[in-house]
Structures are given as structure tokens and as C-alpha cells.
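Example 9 (inverse folding). The structure is encoded as follows.
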């Protein structure tokens, strides 16, 4: 019985000795936040065109496309920067 008690005490002592490892390394903890305002160099705009009736007159897609092209031209956007990516009908 005495040997069992000694063995149990030895096991308990070794487990408690392993549990008390203390990290003695020096540490520096830093928290930071940064913000920067930037000007975008590319803007993507999505425009949908749909035929409609203006009274009894039908406004077609061709007319709407021509109006859009002239509006883009008047806005000073180069024709090379104006692209059509999706056409469905």
C-alpha cells in the first residue's frame, strides 16, 4: 500500500511539474490601424437599354444606342473606352 501511495504521489508530482512551464521570453504586442484615401483610375458603369412606347411612338433599341453613344461622346469619354459586354434579346 505504501508503494502504491508513493507511486501515485510521484505521478501526481511529475504531472504538476510539466503543467507549470512558464514562457519567460519577452514579448511586444502591437495593435495598429491605417487608412488611406485613393482616387480610382477605372470606373465600370452598367447601363441597360429597353424599348418602350412614348405615347403612340415606339422608341427602338437603335435609337437608344445612338442617344447613348452621343451622350458618351458629349461627356468626353473616348470611343475606345466605351465597350459593350453583353447583348441579349
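The amino acid assigned to each position is listed next.
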Amino acid at each position: 500500500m505504501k508503494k502504491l501511495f508513493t507511486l501515485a504521489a510521484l505521478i501526481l508530482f511529475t504531472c504538476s511539474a510539466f503543467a507549470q512551464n512558464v514562457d519567460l521570453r519577452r514579448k511586444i504586442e502591437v495593435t495598429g490601424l491605417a487608412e488611406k484615401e485613393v482616387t480610382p483610375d477605372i470606373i465600370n458603369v452598367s447601363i441597360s437599354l429597353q424599348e418602350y412606347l412614348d405615347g403612340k411612338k415606339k422608341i427602338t433599341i437603335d435609337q437608344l444606342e445612338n442617344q447613348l453613344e452621343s451622350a458618351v461622346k458629349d461627356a468626353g469619354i473616348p470611343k475606345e473606352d466605351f465597350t459593350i459586354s453583353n447583348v441579349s434579346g
